[in-house]
From TrEMBL:
Molecular function as annotated in GO: protein-glutamate O-methyltransferase activity
UniProt KW Manganese keyword: no
Keywords from the UniProt entry: Methyltransferase, S-adenosyl-L-methionine, Transferase
EC number per UniProt: 2.1.1.80
InterPro entries: Bact_Chemotaxis_MeTrfase, CheR_C, CheR_MeTrfase, CheR_N, CheR_N_sf, SAM-dependent_MTases_sf
Name of the protein: protein-glutamate O-methyltransferase
Recorded catalytic activity of this chain's protein: L-glutamyl-[protein] + S-adenosyl-L-methionine = [protein]-L-glutamate 5-O-methyl ester + S-adenosyl-L-homocysteine
Residues annotated as domain CheR-type methyltransferase: 1-274
One Pfam family of this chain: CheR
Species whose genome carries this gene: Haloferax marinum
Gene Ontology BP term (one): methylation
Amino acid sequence: MASSDTTDPAFAHLLTYIEDSLAFQTSSYNDAYLDRRISARMRRRRVDEYEAYEELLRDDEEEQQALLDALSVNVTSFFRNPDVWEALRDVLRDLSSRGGRRDPITVWSAACSDGREAYSLAMLAHDDDQVDERRIEIVGTDIKREILRAARRGEYHASETNDLAEQLEPIGDWERYIDRDGDVFQVKDKLTDMVRFKRRDLIREDPPGTFDLVVCRNLFIYINAESKRAVFETLGSALETGGYLTIGMTETIPPECRDQFDPVEKRLRIYSASDAAAQR
Ligand SMILES: C[S@@+](CC[C@H](N)C(=O)[O-])C[C@H]1O[C@@H](n2cnc3c(N)ncnc32)[C@H](O)[C@@H]1O
């Protein structure tokens, strides 16, 4: 059995090695999450101690890559948590009722992984006749370049554990937006044309603009309290007056950042920029 004790000095030593030599910022993530991922790799390699695993890692480039892959959680889907998407439809309708017919509605899918969240937003805009999709401008950002390349391609492969047709069910007639050839699903140009993908580190960098809707889901579950605060500061500063923020269904806003956001649909984690935020 691999030892699993995040207070073990060898664990801290291993994290420092990963941060300094493999360029993965362990200091931004929470220890329990890092330990789960590292211990899984240790079990795979039948190593019991952090120290022995660090030794192995130093000499084994394949294991370095396998660990980096294990540490990046890119799990996503189209219309993840369908209830949220029904509420986001109302958000897009509300934003559409504001401003002039040609005013852009800006949307940010922050930590967008392979882009399915950003394309879900684009489909929702097309699907709703109260929303003019020509007004919608979507930016998708993630820290990982490789995943952004996949997002730009907009090509997804179905598998037993990735039932894309089922994920797309909430939109009904999804073949209007995606070409299917067996297990390969290719997002059509009318969606890819609506989304720009850029690399951004949400913990350390400024937002890529200001937005009417910011969707940042399922990142906070992995990062530590300090990084969480930094990301909420960034998201808050990116919201237009009266703009909306959505976070993951199991995520919460840290108490010290709550005055910036008013709950709109608390259970679904949809908030609007508060008056306190506007005064900053
Ligand atoms: C679990 S995925 C969430 C994808 C999508 N938002 C969803 O809910 O389905 C988390 C994403 O956060 C990205 N990520 C991790 N750390 C980040 C950081 N510091 N800045 C930006 N993105 C980050 C990962 O690369 C990954 O694609």
